[in-house]
Structures are given as structure tokens and as C-alpha cells.
Design a protein that fits this description.
Layout (H helix, E strand, L loop, with lengths): L1 H11 L14 E6 L4 E4 L1 H7 L3 H4 L14 H11 L5 E8 L5 E11 L2 E7 L4 H20 L3 H14 L5 H19 L6 H29 L3 H11 L5 H57 L8 H60 L5 H42 L1
Antiparallel strand pairs: 1-2, 1-5, 3-4, 4-5
Length: about 400
């Protein structure tokens, strides 16, 4: 009879109402590889409004809210099945019909997965809520496959300025950690601040690399046009023809190097994003471990066993965070090598430009088109050098912050 009354009461709760929990609370649940709930802490049980008997050994989708886009869960499972961690904003449904939002970090553990959740409140969170509502409306109307919906979500994130999902979840981690510190009146995390600077430097680095690539594309026609102009000059254009061949050879080498150069820059940015997320995950897992130590015993967890899981996990991600910092340093070395190669090629352009300038001056002064092409060559070289100088500033800023983080990490 009491169960029936509980169900009746649940139906009376307005579905738009939210379950309240505080910013200083953290909760976790552990599942097997199929997503079956094996344990959790008291906050998880309280916020979900289920008893332990009702939630243990049940699929985690028991608390899934109908407002959630399928895209998010497809990305989540696609990532964790590869043994990689992921962060996501999730709207859950409590037993009584109310809802609650979390920012969840999900990491693989022995025999399954560990999900640690915190209360989100950043500006990005509110942007994501609107994006989810739009995507869910699309899913309801067009019925795309989950992976197709995931592609729509990733496209929307790119419109919001994120290169990929990794960049998005790292920014979400940063914003939510800072918001949590602000709401709980904790000192700002200096590591997050350092990573924020790293992310900004990486973005600047990619922007300047893109400007170099754009300059290359804009001047890709110059070698051929130089050859055409030289051929029109007959025998007097032979020296310019040699110069155009030299430029063609250097341009070809720049083209071959450009792909490696751009990819090295992108890899630096990706590694920084991964490092930020790992640092945030490491901190959250340490805090939930400390939180659980103070928690009252509950029927949903064998305390010693869960403490062991949490301790092992927090240590693992502390080590991963340290490895991430060394990975950034390694990627920076590779990118700087690509920059040095680009600078060598630019020096070759300078020699070619000077030879072209001298030769064009010795020819008919009325050949303005030839002079214009040589000037284009000069502008191309200047654009590369300018971009490389700006990249040097970004590289230096990244090195300073990485060194500080490595020193702080011990």
C-alpha cells in the first residue's frame, strides 16, 4: 500500500521542478561495463530519490531524462569504451519526476566505469542547456541515428568556437571548477588558471599558424605566373626563369612542410585540452574521495571496497595529469622543430626574392606585372615571418606555464 501511495505522490510532483543539492556536494556511482549500477554515495541516492533497493543492479539509464539528446550518450559510450575519460553536462530524472543537472566525469575503472558529478552553474552550462533543447527538438522531428545526432552536436559546438569535443569538455571542466570554487568560497585553483592561459596561448598559436597557411594559399599562383612572365621575355627572361624554378622548389617544400606544421600546432592544442581535463578530473576524484570519507555509511556501497576504488582512481588520474604535462612539453618540442624548418624555408624565400628584385630591375621597367609578382613574393615572406614571430610569443608563454605546472606537480 505504501509503495502505491509513493507512486501516486510522485505523479503529483511538477516535472519542471528541480531537485536541489549544493555546490559543495559531490556524488558518484560505479557501474559495470554494461552500465549496471553497482554502488554510489549517499548524495547520489538522495538526489535521485530512489532507495538503494530500487537503484542497485539497475541500468544507469533508469535516471535518464527524456530531454537529453541521444547524441551525448552516444559520444559518452563511444569514448569510454575506448578506455578514455569524458566529461558531459547531463540532465537526470529523479524518481518523483523532478530533474537535476550535473557535470559528470566518467572514467574507466576495473570492471566498469566511475562517474563523479558536480553541480554546474557556469555561463557555458546555460549555453549548453539551450543547445541541448535545440538538438533534442531536431532528434524528435527528424529521428536521426545517434551517431548522426552526435555529428550535429559537434557541428553546433564548432559554431560556438570549439575545435572538437575535447576542447569543449576541457573548457567546461575549467568553467565549472572555477564556478564551484567561487560558490563554495574556496581559493582559486592556480593550476586551472595556468591551463586557461595555456588554452589561450594555444588558440593564438593556431590562429597565427592558420594565417601562415592562408598566406601560402594566396600566393600559390606566384611560381607559375613567374614562369609565364619569364617565357614571354624570351632569352632575356632566362635568369628569371631560373629564379621562378627556385621559388617553385621552395614553395613545394613549404607545401610539404605546411601539413606537418599545422598538425603539430593542432596536436599542441589537443594535448593542452587533454591536460586540463586530466588535472580537473584528478582534483574532482581526490575531492570525492575525501567527501566519501566523511559520508555516513550507506547500503549502496561496501565502504572499504569503494574507498579502494576511489583511492586507486584518484592516484591513477593524478599520475595521468603529470604525464599530460610532460606530453605538452614533448608536443611543444615537435612544434618548435616544425617552426625552425619553416624559418629555414623562409630564409630561402628571401634569397629568391632578392635575386628576383635585382633581375626584374635589370629588365624592362615597364614590366609591372613581373615587379608585382616579386612584390607578392616579398609579402608572402613577410606574412610567414610575422606569423612565426607571433608564434614565438605563444610558444614562450606556453613554456613558462608548463614549467610552472611541472614544478607545482612535483
Amino acid at each position: 500500500m505504501s509503495a502505491l501511495l509513493a507512486e501516486v505522490e510522485a505523479e503529483r510532483v511538477p516535472t519542471g521542478e528541480e531537485v536541489d543539492f549544493s555546490f559543495d556536494e559531490l556524488f558518484f556511482s560505479r557501474t559495470d561495463e554494461r552500465g549496471i549500477i553497482l554502488s554510489g554515495n549517499s548524495v547520489f541516492q538522495r538526489v535521485s530519490c530512489y532507495s538503494w533497493d530500487e537503484i542497485l543492479n539497475k541500468p544507469h539509464k533508469l535516471i535518464r531524462h527524456d530531454d537529453m539528446p541521444k547524441a551525448v550518450f552516444w559520444l559518452l559510450w563511444d569514448t569510454i569504451k575506448k578506455g578514455q575519460p569524458i566529461g558531459a553536462y547531463v540532465k537526470n530524472r529523479a524518481k518523483d519526476g523532478r530533474h537535476y543537472w550535473v557535470f559528470a566525469t566518467v572514467t574507466p575503472v576495473d570492471g566498469g566505469y566511475l562517474s563523479v558529478r558536480l553541480k554546474p552553474g557556469s555561463d557555458l552550462f546555460h549555453t549548453v542547456k539551450a543547445a541541448y533543447a535545440e538538438l533534442r527538438a531536431v532528434e524528435m522531428e527528424t529521428k536521426p541515428k545517434p551517431e548522426e545526432s552526435a555529428a550535429i552536436l559537434l557541428s553546433r559546438l564548432r559554431e560556438l568556437g570549439f575545435r572538437d569535443y575535447g576542447a569543449f569538455m576541457s573548457e567546461a571542466m575549467s568553467q565549472e571548477m572555477k564556478e564551484r570554487d567561487r560558490r563554495t568560497k574556496q581559493d582559486a585553483d592556480s593550476r586551472i588558471a595556468s591551463f586557461d592561459r595555456l588554452v589561450t596561448s594555444a588558440k593564438d598559436l593556431l590562429d597565427h599558424a592558420a594565417s601562415i597557411f592562408k598566406a601560402y594559399e594566396s600566393n600559390a599562383h606566384v611560381p607559375l605566373n613567374l614562369k609565364i612572365q619569364a617565357s614571354h621575355l624570351g632569352s632575356s627572361g632566362a635568369p628569371m626563369y631560373v629564379i621562378s624554378n627556385n621559388y617553385s622548389a621552395i614553395s613545394q617544400r613549404i607545401q610539404e612542410n605546411m601539413q606537418d606544421f599545422m598538425e603539430a600546432g593542432k596536436q599542441v592544442a589537443r594535448t593542452i585540452d587533454e591536460g586540463l581535463f586530466l588535472v580537473g578530473t584528478s582534483r574532482i576524484q581526490r575531492e570525492v574521495f575525501e567527501f566519501f570519507q566523511q559520508d555516513e555509511p550507506n547500503d549502496g556501497a561496501v565502504r572499504d571496497q569503494e574507498m579502494k576504488y576511489l583511492e586507486v582512481q584518484q592516484q591513477s588520474y593524478f599520475e595521468k595529469a603529470g604525464q599530460g604535462l610532460h606530453a605538452i612539453a614533448s608536443q611543444m618540442n615537435q612544434f618548435q622543430s616544425a617552426c625552425r624548418e619553416m624559418r629555414k624555408l623562409t630564409s630561402g624565400l628571401e634569397v629568391t626574392r632578392v635575386m628576383g628584385k635585382i633581375e626584374s630591375a635589370a629588365l624592362d621597367a615597364s614590366l609591372t606585372s613581373l615587379n608585382d609578382l616579386v612584390d607578392d613574393l616579398g609579402r608572402f615572406q613577410s606574412a610567414i615571418l610575422s606569423g612565426l614571430r607571433e608564434i614565438d610569443h605563444s610558444n614562450s608563454a606556453i613554456q613558462v606555464d608548463v614549467e610552472q605546472l611541472l614544478n607545482a606537480n612535483g
